[in-house]
Amino acid sequence: MEILEKIRSGMDLKFEEATVMFNEMLSGNVDESLIEEILVALADKGETEEEIAGSAQAMLGHAIPVDHDFSTLLDVVGTGGDGSGSFNISTAAAIVCSLFVPVAKHGNRAMSSKSGSADVLEALGVPINLGREDAARFLEQKNFVFLFAQKFHPAMKSVAGVRKKLGRRTIFNLLGPLCNPARPDCQLIGIFQDDFIPKYVGAIEHLNIPNVIVVSSRDGMDEVSISDKTLCYYKKGSSVKTFDFDPVEFGIYASKDKVKGYEASVNAKIMKEVFLGENHSDLTNAIAINAAFALLSAEVETDLKKAFALARETIKNKKAYEKLTELIA
Description:
The chain has a domain at 74-149 and 181-328: Pyrimidine Nucleoside Phosphorylase, Chain A, domain 2 (3-Layer(aba) Sandwich), CATH 3.40.1030. Helix content is 47%, strand content 12%. It contains 15 helices and 7 strands. The chain has helices spanning 2-8, 15-26, 32-45, 49-62, 89-97, 117-124, 132-142, 149-152, 157-166, 172-175, 197-206, 264-275, 281-297, 304-316, 319-328; strands spanning 74-78, 103-107, 144-148, 186-190, 211-217, 230-236, 239-245. The protein has a 5-stranded mixed sheet with strand order 1-4-5-6-7, sandwiched between helices. The protein has a two-stranded parallel sheet with strand order 2-3. Helix 11 (197-206) links the parallel strand 4 (186-190) and strand 5. The mean pLDDT is 94.
């Protein structure tokens, strides 16, 4: 395969080349041994923004689309793989945000934590296995829906065996947040490694996602941390600005063990307690600040401190709990 030789020699693929190559893989037209070579060669070389964007474009092309009529649609999502074993912060933040803006939460079962977004929502009783039409209807009625990656990306079966065999990070570990089948125009994306952010933002440009905030905390979390500074890239239209978020400036600093995660059933219980205002102040702050960044991306608020106050008040006045109850009902 000519493209494989190109990667092996240390050359980068153009967007179109990556799209074609991943289309072939996902169509089942490439032998598993060759897929393995390609994924390893890409990872060893270091994936570029065009390769990430091209592979994401191919995945979106094979995904089952979810139609909607919303002018604004948000996703709050992380790549996973940070190994921090933290609580389901982005899932809780997504529920908070759905009180202000429609949210299509794209996610999967646990990768590096004890409980992934699918796991905790399932434990809560929120539907996670909705098909295309039911998902679209649920989103329209509830202003929130969970889109289970396994359900909407059937073509991933073509590479599942190779990924399991390799047991290491490949480009596919970066693609989840870019492949939401509802195609949201606003996103808060957490990355497990901050040196990936510039190329990730470049990939987002190629995919024409209008408003995105990409974050990676200095303590290695794929979300906004309350335990350390977080590097943030804020893309609004064609402009991108970078800044560091420091929880100390918001008076919400706490050690990392305060946002520790457990098995899905325990995390579900804790999420209900947080939304009922039951003595989880640090976790409340962690959820609220991530929701604030997402609300900023969706332009519900233009000031981060106001967005944080709004999100925290939504948890404290139990509106978030009412929303969760509605999703379960």
